[in-house]
Design a protein that fits this description.
The chain has helices at 2-19, 22-41. It is mainly alpha-helical and 46 residues long. It has one domain. Helix 1 runs antiparallel to helix 2 (22-41). The chain crosses the membrane at residues 7-40.
């Protein structure tokens, strides 16, 4: 279910884009993307 993981990451990034501002916004988006890639590399499924 890697597509579901990617969709969840995109939704979280979209919410962060709308709610947060400045450096915090990009920091959270980077954390979400790195977490999603790590989760996918471990073979996990959502």
């Amino acid at each position: 279910m890697s597509i579901a993981t990617i969709l969840v990451a995109l939704i979280v990034c979209f919410v962060a884009w709308k709610v947060l501002t400045g450096i915090i916004k990009f920091g959270l988006m980077a954390v979400v993307l790195v977490g999603a890639f790590y989760f996918l590399s471990q073979g996990g499924s959502l």
